[in-house]
Amino acid sequence: MIAKPAKRRRSGSRSLPSKFWQLRLYVAGQTPKSLTAFSNLKKICDNYLSGRYRIEVIDLLEQPQLSRGDQIFAIPTLVRKLPQPVRKIIGDLSDTERVLVGLDLRPSA
Amino acid sequence: MGKESLRMTKCCLGAGSAVGRLPKCPTGIDGLDEITGGGLPRGRPTLVCGGAGCGKTLFAAEFLVRGAAQFGEPGVFMSFEETDSELGANVASLGFDLAGLVRRKKLLVEHVHIERNEIHETGEYDLEGLFVRLNLAIDSIGAKRVVLDTLEALFAGLPNEAILRAELRRLFGWLKRKGVTAVITAERGREQLTRHGLEEYVSDCVILLDHKIIDQIATRHLRVVKYRGTLHGTNEFPFLIGDEGLSVLPITSLGLTHKVSNRRISTGIPRLDTMLGGRGFFRGSSILLTGTPGTGKTITSACFAHAAALRGERVLFFSFEESPNQIIRNMRSIGLRLEPLVKGGALRFRSARPTLYGLEMHLATMFKEIASFKPHVVIIDPITSLMGAGADFETKAMVTRLIDYLKGGQVTSLFTSLTHGDHALQQSEIAMSSLMDAWLLLQDFEGNGERNRVLYVIKARGMAHSNQVREFLISNRGIDLVDAYIGPSGVLTGSARTAQTARETAELLASQQEAARRKRELEGKRAAVERQIVGLRSEHEAGAEELRQIDRQVGTQTRLLTTERTELGRLRHADVSAVARARHEPKSGRGRR
Known about the structure:
The complex is a heterodimer.
Chain A: E1 7-10, E2 21-27, H1 32-48, E3 53-59, E4 77-82, E5 87-90, H2 96-102
Parallel strand pairs in A: 2-3
Antiparallel strand pairs in A: 1-3, 2-4, 4-5
Chain B: H1 2-19, E1 24-25, H2 32-35, E2 40-41, E3 45-50, H3 56-70, E4 75-79, H4 84-92, H5 98-103, E5 107-111, E6 119-121, H6 128-141, E7 145-149, H7 152-157, H8 161-178, E8 181-187, E9 205-214, E10 217-227, E11 236-242, E12 245-248, E13 264-265, H9 270-275, E14 281-282, E15 286-291, H10 297-310, E16 315-319, H11 324-332, H12 339-344, E17 347-351, H13 359-373, E18 377-381, H14 383-387, H15 392-408, E19 412-418, H16 424-427, H17 430-433, E20 438-447, E21 450-460, E22 470-475, E23 478-483, E24 485-487, E25 490-492, H18 494-572, H19 576-592
Parallel strand pairs in B: 3-8, 3-9, 4-5, 4-7, 7-8, 15-19, 15-20, 16-17, 16-18, 18-19
Antiparallel strand pairs in B: 1-2, 9-10, 10-11, 11-12, 13-14, 20-21, 21-22, 22-23, 24-25
Helix pairs in contact in B: 13-15, 18-19
């Protein structure tokens, strides 16, 4: 679906496709909010999804046309492409609890 | 109120066009550019707010489509509610080919899907994504116009209102810097113009759409609440959504510039033509036919329609009371055969109940019919039905618009108007009658145990017309107008007129007989005198004869006497003179006796 995902990081094995997490982080330039969001995301993933995730970071200033596919309007936006269903989390991901709920890593509080 | 708004709008138009300080972006929406003096503020955002279903999206779509198709300004439609295909289908009903414009890169539909269930909010964010998308869309087709429909969806989708408000402020600033003319739609709020107070961000132009229901009839209204830097009409203007988009109906669209015709057309009633200077109505004029119920308005209209169709003109007959078949059947009873004309295509009926839909829809369908059929003559029977379909002020404005439209196209229009009670004249719609070029009044007179119809020509601009009342007779041979009897006891019609005529005939006969009698009497007298004269003459003759006889006797006696005297004188030797004197003496002696 996405023509040219910008791969930043891949870790872990591919042995668990059902529980493999494919995440996309949309940003617009290297803004403080974007940087915060990325570092927050990485921290959460390392803690909860170690070795089972992949993060693509898409900079809309470089590839604005990609904004349509995932219906992006807020920046930063994290899209959980896999596992289904698609979920979206907007904001700098500073509230870890909410991120975990949003990613469905924890039953809603 | 009508006059006031007229003046207001006129002054606005004048100021708007004369000063022209603010660059305007024409919307192409019928009537709106007249109210705003040229369109929306160019390069600035305009807020269009209104309740559900009052045409905000259509307004916005028409602004874009007309911009792309008519003014060469490509546009971006950013939709927060409808998808491309939904939007395409919705505006296709107005005859807009959205897909075609999209294919030709004149228009771009950007659907922004916001679903609250799918969104989790954690921490700080902004709406840069929206800006990116909008920017991309604008740049990809070189758009000059932008529609955001509706930003309210953001409030529903995003929980953090503080961020949203800050971002909206930034968005409007950004749009201005981008130099695009934007239309932003918003839901009407309870106490403010918009539910979320968007009007505080958009300060240049605010337009309010409204859908009012008065007496169970819905009419749409448009009001320019605010238009910074320009004068504008502040009144509510009715508008309609027709087959070709929106149409705002300001009274000022009545531009008195239509061409006029000198040609005259027959009314279909010869005597009525005679009353109108002998040649009927002017082509392209508007005619009002007022009357109380049952005075023959429809019949008169049908006669007019019949005559026009027979001349080969196209006639469009809007009937709000009877079905076409009913009219055709009823007219057959007075000897008018409309069926062949309908079959031949010269005459077209359109019937609808006035309450079927609101006035705006009626007018929209009428406009459409007129545009497609291109009639020479339009008959609306009765216009008062339409009057009932909306509030007073707006119906007048809309009817004005209709008349103007017809006049502009040189279409002769006949409106019948139903009035109630005795004061038909006073009751007739004053505002409407002043728009009409000719006005006929049908009235009935009650009296003598019967009702009779009469017809007056109240006015007929530009032609000599009869000031006489005519009795209006409907028979199975059609309409006939006869002179009403005007005598010392007032106007007599119907059997009273017939009775009066009979009475006059009788009186005439009587007086003729009387004259004959007197003539005979005089003849007799004269004959008697003649006879007398003859008698006298014979008496006279007799007298003369007697006289002559006397004369003769006297002569004889004188002669005898003279003879005797001469004899005596001769005997006594008297001289001649004595004899002569003596001859005279007996005569004078006899006179003295």
